[in-house]
């Protein structure tokens, strides 16, 4: 088994609470320097997320997108070790065969251990990031588990409720009117659960729980596994319907869990709104403002015509 400490209590709380687990992925050759360089070389370069950010973890607007077209997989790994870089290989399970096999293995185990669990829309992302890099306060629409393979990072997980995220803010994110990142107040840390992830540790949390991440002073390698379940899909569609009803009918709907009559009606609203394309997403396309220097992979250079 990949996870070493399943219990009946953890299985019952899975997807509803912040839970930590022990796993063995950090022992696999897939995550050695050689394995990481091979993954970076094979992954479609047009889909690779290359980012940098300021040194202030609270500066949520400092994330900048970059280019790395001229670097080999080995060069990219050197850049992550030497610079202030966050490399995101989203849907690695779609583009890299070893990660497709890993996704099948992980989700088969989850479904075997958690009674009634059915997962779909699986996205296994490989995250390779520099010392002291960070991810600002944000939330995800799907369920997420974060698996630490190399290095140490700290994760703060906040309740998916006011004041950490309001229902209207949640609707904007699900309707894709705004980014998943948004400002937070440092005082909110008092209501967060802080988890230190070391190699062989995994954390998962309730759907839509805001969180932020800070790397320790070393290269970090993690896997972000996003997925949906039938209840998670219901929640996402109820939030979507609430946003439509608020904008189109002037109502003030509230978010409730479960499959009661109100939520069943909202599922119909969401399906109809999507079919009629009543809500047009506001695509937020970040321009690339820097590129990694092939001669000095840890160095960033401005892209001509942009404001770095």
Strand content: 15-25%
Number of strands: 14
Structural class: alpha+beta
Largest sheet: 10 strands, mixed
Radius of gyration: 20 Å
The helix/strand series, from N terminus to C terminus, equals HEHEEHEHHEEEEHEEEEHHEE
Number of helices: 8
**Which stretches are low in confidence, meaning pLDDT under 50 for 5 or more residues running?**
none
C-alpha geometry: globular
| Average residue-wise pLDDT | 94
Share of residues in helices: 25-40%
How is the largest sheet built, in terms of strand order? 1-10-7-12-5-4-2-3-13-14
| Euclidean distance between termini CA atoms | 46 Å
Describe the protein's architecture and organization.
By secondary structure, the protein is an alpha+beta fold. The protein has helices spanning 8-13, 33-42, 73-82, 92-95, 97-113, 167-174, 230-248, 261-276; strands at residues 19-22, 49-52, 64-67, 86-89, 120-129, 134-138, 143-150, 153-157, 193-197, 201-204, 211-215, 220-228, 288-292, 300-302. The N and C termini lie far apart (46 Å). A hairpin with a 7-residue loop joins strand 13 and strand 14. A 10-stranded mixed beta sheet has the order 1-10-7-12-5-4-2-3-13-14. Strands 6-11-8-9 form a 4-stranded antiparallel beta sheet, with no helix packed on it. Helix 2 packs across helix 3 (73-82).
